[in-house]
Amino acid sequence: MEIHQSAVILLLVLAASFTAYGQPDDIKPCYQKLLNQHLGSCVNEQDCDKEISKRDITASGTENGCKEVNTFIQANKNNIKVVCGKGGTPQGNNLFKSNQPFPVVICKLQSGQRHSNCQYRGKKSTRYIVLGCDREWPVHYEEAMINGLMAG
C-alpha cells in the first residue's frame, strides 16, 4: 500500500507543477490572437494578401475592415515568448523590447473596398519587436524598432 500511496502523491505533485507552469486560461485567447495575427515564420513579402485573408485579420472600427499595417514576425512561438522574460528588456506598462532583432514582413494596405478584398504590399525588414506581456506570456504586438527607434 505504501508504494501505491507514494505513486499517488508523486502524480499529484507532478500535476500541480504542470499547472503552476502552464499558461493561465485567461491569457490563452489573447496569446492565440497574437500568434494568429503576427507569427509568420514562413510568410514572405508576396504572401501578405493571402495570409491576412486566410487568418481573417481585420481592423474593427474602420469603414472597410482593412487593417492599415500588419507585421508578421519570422520566428517560432518560443523565440517570441522569451521576449517577455530573459530575451526582452522592460519598457514600462508591461511592454518588453526584444534584446535581439527579428526578421519581419511588414504588410501595408495599398487598396481595398471591403475586408477580404484588401490588397497589401509586403516589405522584409529586421527589427526589434515590442510586445505587451501578461505573466511572461506575449499577448499584444506593440511596435517594431529600427536601431532603437520606434517604427510603424
Structure explained in plain terms:
The protein contains 4 helices and 7 strands; from the N terminus they run αααβαββββββ. With 152 residues, the protein is an alpha+beta fold. The chain has one domain (23-151): Roll (P-30 Protein). Strands 1, 2, 3, 4, 5, 6 and 7 form a 7-stranded antiparallel sheet that branches. A hairpin with a 2-residue loop joins strand 5 and strand 6.
**Overall tally of domains:** 1
Q: What percent of residues adopt helix (DSSP H or I)?
A: 25-40%
CATH class: Alpha Beta
- Quick one: how many beta strands? 7
In short:
By secondary structure, the protein is an alpha+beta fold. Helix content is 28%, strand content 35%.
Notable features of this structure?
7-stranded antiparallel sheet, alpha+beta, 4 helices, P-30 Protein, single chain, 7 strands, 152 residues
Topology:
Elements: H1 2-21, H2 28-38, H3 48-54, E1 69-73, H4 77-81, E2 88-92, E3 95-98, E4 102-111, E5 119-134, E6 137-146, E7 149-151
Antiparallel strand pairs: 1-4, 2-3, 3-5, 4-5, 5-6, 6-7
